Each structure stands twice: as structure tokens, then as C-alpha cells.
Amino acid sequence: MSRPPISKQPHPWRIPLALDAIPETGLSQDFEAGPAEREAMRQLAGLRDLPLARAHFELTHAGGGRVRAVGRITAKVGQTCVVTLEPIENDIDEPIEALFVPEEEVDAVTKAMDKEAESTGEMAETPEAIVGGVIDVGKLAADALFLSIDPYPRKPDARFEPPAVAENPDEHPFAALKALKGKPPAKSGES
To answer: Residue 189 to residues 16, 180, 185: CA-CA distances in angstroms?
Structure first.
């Protein structure tokens, strides 16, 4: 059974916050994914286990109905070593920074940020949308988590050792071609 494309799946960790719930002085808050959210993220990311996922955000008003989010995602992810195929756990501790803008301004702000990035040479972040006066810091945290997962996890002491046995050159997949080398091509009608 195949999974639907990620864009078609509901987002696994939702933490909606209304803009009017963020005081003018800002908001500092910690969030922890519950078992259902962790299981949904584990499945979506193809992890063996996800026993912990936490986020901390400092949210401040940035003027013009915008909100700046600065924080961290911390998690413990269970994966499988690509060398030994043994289970391993990796810790994730990544900074997060994003600008939330009203939904109708996302395209214009993105273009302005891209233009600024061209002049500075730095990569621009795509702003996050404020939809109906609500921001979703859970989606932001989960996206940062997904991007932080090592796609090729390996145990610190794991080493790939190629087979020590020398191959028999006559059993090589291209040995039959080697046998044909130097023979003149067959003329049509000959067998």
C-alpha cells in the first residue's frame, strides 16, 4: 500500500495560536508533541521511533500584522544504522526562525525576500502564512524536525567493510562480453 503524497496528508503536529493571544510584549512558550502527534510524525518521516519532540518559541509582533517566531526543536529519533542495520537513537536540537505574514501577503513578501537574498547572497526563507488570524507553530516545529533528520544515520563506530573475497574474473557480469571482444561480427546469414 503506498502513502499519499506528503502535501495531501494532514499535518501531524498542529499548534494553532490566535494573534490576539500573543501579548504586545511577546510570548515565550514550550510545547510537547503528544503520543498521537509523535506517531503521525514518525510514520510520515519513516522513523523507527519518535519518543520525544519538543519545541520552544519566542513570539513577537513584527508590525503590519506580522509575527516573528524564534525558537528550537528538540527531539529523540529512533532510526536504523545504514551500515549495520542496528537500531540507533539520534538527538535533534535545531534552531528555528520564521516570519508569519498575512496569507494574502505571502507571495509579495516572498518576492521581496528573494530579491534581497540575490543582493546579499544569502538564501531567503519562505514566510509562513497567518490564516484567519491564526499561526501554526506546530507545523513550523514539525517541518524543522523533518529537515533535521539524518537521511543516512550510522552508529559512530560503524564502518563499511567491502567483501574480503576476491571475485573470480570469469564470473563477472561482463565476462561474456569480454569473450566476444576481438571476434569479428557475424555476417548476415551466418550462424
So the answer is: 77, 19, 12
